DNA sequence: CTGTAGACTTCTGTCGACC
DNA sequence: GGGTCGACAGAAGTCTACA
């Protein structure tokens, strides 16, 4: 009974983990993904949610597949 | 040279394929996913794009993982 | 059962600025 | 390098209704 993690929070955690793993800055990822730096910040903090297209853009910027990202999110959500 | 398919179109095709595979109607899927029937219609026709939360809701309604859905989308997009 | 249309609400995503 | 704020355009998602 301890699963109070939202989709936003789970995705944010995965995004931050993957980004820091590559040693990239939020700004670099934003540029590579064609997104705004402030939006990456909000995503990592679990304040916003991505669309499917955004997940795909981020996956390319991070050098992983989008399905792998979603898989990690599902794990955090308890799947 | 196979980047003519948009994310919307790829997702719509995957969604329709999975839904018809279960024999469910758009209305049933909508109810199970907690979404609107007209929105499912637009998603399948590639006129709209889902957020990550919507992909997760639909995956539960369809009895597959969200990562599997995204994997199929990536395949259609040429990954 | 599905497509479409309009009107509407909420949220994604951008941008400039400042800390 | 990252957090935050406010203003904004556009898209996600709902609902009623009719073909």
From TrEMBL, chains A, B:
<dbReference type="GO" id="GO:0005829">
    <property type="term" value="C:cytosol"/>
</dbReference>
<dbReference type="InterPro" id="IPR050807">
    <property type="entry name" value="TransReg_Diox_bact_type"/>
</dbReference>
<dbReference type="GO" id="GO:0003700">
    <property type="term" value="F:DNA-binding transcription factor activity"/>
</dbReference>
<dbReference type="Pfam" id="PF01381">
    <property type="entry name" value="HTH_3"/>
</dbReference>
<dbReference type="GO" id="GO:0003677">
    <property type="term" value="F:DNA binding"/>
</dbReference>
<feature type="domain" description="HTH cro/C1-type">
    <location>
        <begin position="15"/>
        <end position="69"/>
    </location>
</feature>
<dbReference type="InterPro" id="IPR010982">
    <property type="entry name" value="Lambda_DNA-bd_dom_sf"/>
</dbReference>
<keyword id="KW-0238">DNA-binding</keyword>
<protein>
    <recommendedName>
        <fullName>HTH cro/C1-type domain-containing protein</fullName>
    </recommendedName>
</protein>
<dbReference type="InterPro" id="IPR001387">
    <property type="entry name" value="Cro/C1-type_HTH"/>
</dbReference>
């Amino acid at each position: 009974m301890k699963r109070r993690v939202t989709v936003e929070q789970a995705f944010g955690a995965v995004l931050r983990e993957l980004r820091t793993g590559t040693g990239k800055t939020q700004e670099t990822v934003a540029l590579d993904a064609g997104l705004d730096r402030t939006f990456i910040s909000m995503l990592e903090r679990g304040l916003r949610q991505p669309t499917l297209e955004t997940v795909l853009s981020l996956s390319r910027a991070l050098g992983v597949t989008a399905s792998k990202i979603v898989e990690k999110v599902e794990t955090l959500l308890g799947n």
